[in-house]
Specification:
By secondary structure, this protein is mainly α. The protein has a domain of 262 residues. It is 52% helix and 3% strand. The chain has 22 helices and two strands. Strands 1-2 form a two-stranded antiparallel sheet. Strand 1 and strand 2 form a beta hairpin. Bound molecules: heme C (4 copies).
């Protein structure tokens, strides 16, 4: 059923089982076309695990750098680093949860030791050991890069700012985001509605990615979890994680402790309180928004791609997400579903001749995604629950071994 996946890791096998059960469940109640679309989206994951083995002799130096692929930190001068920003002072439980994740340990595991696959990938890209921890293609995905005396330096593994945006700078969000009054200390309940709106606007302008910004959060994940650097992928690095936004953000990564430091809530507790949001609606929105982010990011990576072996890996994520989006009945999802159809590569890795239109389409998708988020709260998409329920919270092997399946 899933060709070419025999070399999968235990994680991958688990994921396959999940996908199969998901498809079975889905077929009980959904139309044929929807079932296959959903199965396809999940299938994407398995598809990605097929190693890229064909490397052409002439390897153009293409990759993510050429276009704005990511929502992850791009302005290193604004990165504070968790130590300097002292997020822990106010977010003790969030930081404690973060330190248990493979995110936090990634720099140590992948960048500090110059051996094994790290060396293999670095060699393929001509990166020297000393560069790994400074100005390397690896550093922004496996760690947090800040400027120290004008030089780029990895200051930690994947950290708070990797997903929530760089916090520093004179007009940065660090101080703004937690201040309920211009001059005096007052509790959250006493903040005026006007000040709150102004504070949120200032945070958003400063690049803070807050819980309300589901699309920004999803894009930050995909910015690292879809990999378009063709040399890197040709060297054996995964082109993509077995990623889905709902389950991957609800397992080891979850840290919803704001209202109660002892309770890791199923949805952001501050958001639940202030926006009156529900867990079910948030999961539905995440499911669809994740699809938007998947197609947008994939198109941005496809734009400069030239290697068939890499290009063909983006076929299923595009095609399947396009089908699924067309099943969700809103103007934005249907429009994006149709739009994407014109960009799906062939099985052999041929890109449709669309020239610069890939990036224009990606921009258009981003606009549709934002409109979708503004126009919906998830309450209309109860149909998706059955599928989502079958996608349990995801924990890495490493995490499970140390902590089990809870956080
Ligand atoms: C001095 C205390 C303090 C520090 C330091 C601090 N925070 Fe916060 N943080 C808060 C408070 C208070 C809130 C709740 C704001 C509100 O009510 O909108 C908050 C909320 C947040 C939120 C949720 C915002 C939303 O609207 O969804 C995020 C994300 C966050 N902080 C990240 C960070 C990160 C990352 C750091 C370190 C770079 C940090 N904070 C440092 C006090 C702090
Ligand atoms: C700055 C880049 C970056 C961002 C942003 C990012 N990740 Fe990751 N993530 C990684 C890397 C790198 C790994 C692999 C860590 C390792 O093994 O060294 C990883 C691993 C994971 C894992 C564990 C996978 C496994 O089986 O080992 C989960 C779960 C995960 N990420 C979820 C998310 C989610 C959800 C988001 C968005 C909310 C996200 N990540 C955003 C870089 C990132
Ligand atoms: C666009 C983001 C991105 C870039 C660039 C990137 N990685 Fe990764 N890397 C990841 C993610 C995400 C994972 C985890 C994939 C998974 O398991 O789902 C990973 C996994 C790994 C692993 C463990 C799996 C394996 O293949 O052995 C190593 C080692 C690694 N990366 C090294 C590197 C090195 C060295 C570089 C630079 C030459 C690099 N990576 C560049 C995102 C990236
Ligand atoms: C891998 C990406 C990622 C990283 C790293 C990350 N966050 Fe988050 N954070 C999220 C996502 C996604 C949400 C929304 C969670 C949800 O939808 O359930 C969130 C929510 C939050 C909230 C709101 C919680 C609530 O109960 O309302 C706070 C506060 C927060 N993060 C702070 C931090 C701090 C501090 C760090 C560093 C220790 C951090 N985050 C690291 C992705 C991340």
């Amino acid at each position: 059923m899933f060709p070419g996946v025999s070399g999968m890791t235990i994680d991958g096998a688990g994921m396959l089982k999940k996908m199969e059960s998901l498809m079975k469940r889905a077929s009980l109640s959904l139309s044929r076309s929807r079932t296959s679309a959903i199965a396809g989206v999940m299938f994407t994951a398995a598809y990605f695990l097929v190693a890229v083995s064909t490397t052409s002799a002439a390897e153009p130096a293409t990759g993510a750098a050429a276009t704005d692929v990511t929502a992850k930190v791009t302005d290193h001068s604004r990165v504070m680093g968790a130590a300097r920003a002292d997020c822990k002072k106010c977010h003790v439980s969030e930081v404690a949860a973060g330190m248990k994740t493979v995110h936090f340990q990634s720099a140590e595991q992948r960048l500090y030791k110059f051996d094994g696959n790290t060396k293999k990938y670095a060699d393929a890209l001509g990166i020297k050991q000393a560069e790994l921890l400074s100005n390397s293609a690896c550093a922004d995905c496996h760690g947090t890069v800040a400027l120290e005396a004008g030089q780029k330096k990895v200051v930690s593994g994947v950290s708070c700012e990797s997903c929530h945006g760089a916090a520093g700078g004179d007009d940065g969000w660090l101080n703004t985001h937690q201040s309920y009054h211009a001059s005096m200390k007052i509790p959250r309940e006493q903040e005026t509605a006007e000040h709150k709106a102004e504070r949120h606007a200032r945070c958003d302008t400063a690049g803070m990615v807050r819980s309300t910004n589901l699309y920004g959060l999803a894009k930050s994940c995909y910015g690292c979890h879809l990999i378009g650097n063709e040399k890197l992928v040709a060297a054996g690095h995964k082109a993509a994680s077995v990623f889905d936004f709902v389950s991957w953000s609800t397992g080891e990564v979850r840290h919803n402790f704001f209202m109660d430091k002892e309770v890791n809530a199923a949805a952001p507790s501050l958001w639940t309180e202030t926006e009156k949001g529900t867990v079910a609606n948030r999961r539905r929105m995440k499911f669809v928004v994740g699809m938007f982010a998947q197609v947008e990011t994939t198109l941005r990576l496809l734009a400069p791609a030239t290697e068939g072996a890499v290009i063909k890996q983006f076929r299923n994520p595009l095609r399947d997400a396009a089908e699924l989006l067309q099943e969700v009945d809103t103007p934005e999802t249907v429009a994006v579903g149709e739009l994407v159809e014109d960009f799906v590569p062939s099985r052999t890795g041929k890109k449709p001749e669309n020239g610069d239109e890939y990036l224009a389409a990606a921009d258009e998708i981003a606009e549709h995604a934002k409109a979708f988020v503004n126009a919906n709260d998830g309450s209309k998409f109860a149909d998706l629950d059955e599928i989502i329920e079958e996608t349990p919270a995801y924990y890495s092997q490493q995490y499970k071994q140390k902590y089990g399946e809870e956080n």
